[in-house]
Design brief:
The protein is α/β, with parallel strands linked by helices. The chain is built from eight helices and twelve strands. The chain is globular and about 50 Å long. It has two domains: about 110 residues, 3-Layer(aba) Sandwich (Rossmann fold), CATH 3.40.50.2300; about 100 residues, Winged helix-like DNA-binding domain superfamily/Winged helix DNA-binding domain (Arc Repressor Mutant, subunit A). The protein starts with a strand and ends with a strand. α6 packs across α8. It is about 40% helix and about 25% strand.
Length: about 220
């Protein structure tokens, strides 16, 4: 059973999230950033659900200390700047409060499917095989270049979240350092063309003045 650490100081929200997940996952609890670190000294988890406005150690500080564990942020901070900055420092996904229960549960499931031990990332009819470096649209394989593959991997890691151009470039830097903002637009266009060979859906959405996200 996958294990999740919920780090949330609001008792009502904490209990709600726990109730939504505890029948499917092993849940550990923390009510501050400092308590979260103490819990993680004793147990291993597959995902952390994290509030940002915590007593003591802030959520942003905790993210930077835990770069080896996927983190789903659930916060009342709703500005694009807050979201982009939080994703930039290492969070995998970001949900604003108040959230819809069904969306919250699905976002958790997506992140647990996307953990490092998994070989595939999935979103609707898209499936990215991280071992063979192929994108599948339904059952149809689509060959990607090294840069295109890295872009799709990050978009699938951050499902439904806007990634600014600079954030996306930072995220793909470990896989490829020969992409800039001008060439990024070209790579995105090429990925769209390849997907459209087998689907009428335009999966990659351009967010004017900011960056990209999966629809």
């Amino acid at each position: 059973m996958k294990a999740i650490l919920i780090v949330e100081d609001d008792i009502y929200i904490h209990n709600l999230m726990k109730e939504l997940l505890e029948n499917t996952y092993k849940i550990y609890d923390a009510y501050s950033g400092t308590e979260a670190l103490l819990v993680l000294e004793k147990v291993s988890v597959d995902l952390i659900i994290l509030d940002l406005m915590l007593p003591g150690l802030a959520g942003e500080e905790l993210i930077q200390k835990l770069n080896d564990i996927p983190i789903l942020v659930v916060s009342a901070k709703s500005s694009v700047e807050d979201k982009v900055n939080t994703l930039h420092i290492g969070a995998r996904d970001y949900i604003t409060k108040p959230f819809h229960n069904e969306e919250f549960v699905e976002r958790v499931a997506v992140q647990l499917r996307a953990t490092k031990g998994n070989k595939t990332l999935e979103y609707r009819e898209l499936r990215l095989d991280t071992k063979e470096h192929f994108l599948y649209v339904g059952e149809n394989p689509v060959g990607l270049t090294r840069v295109e593959f890295s872009i799709m991997k990050q978009l699938l890691f951050h499902t439904n979240q806007i990634l600014s151009k600079s954030t996306l470039l930072d995220l793909i830097f470990d896989d490829t350092n020969d992409c800039d903002e001008n060439s990024l637009k070209v790579h995105i266009s090429n990925i769209r063309k390849k997907i459209r060979q087998f689907s009428n859906e335009d999966y990659i959405e351009s967010v004017w003045g900011i960056g990209y996200k999966l629809k």
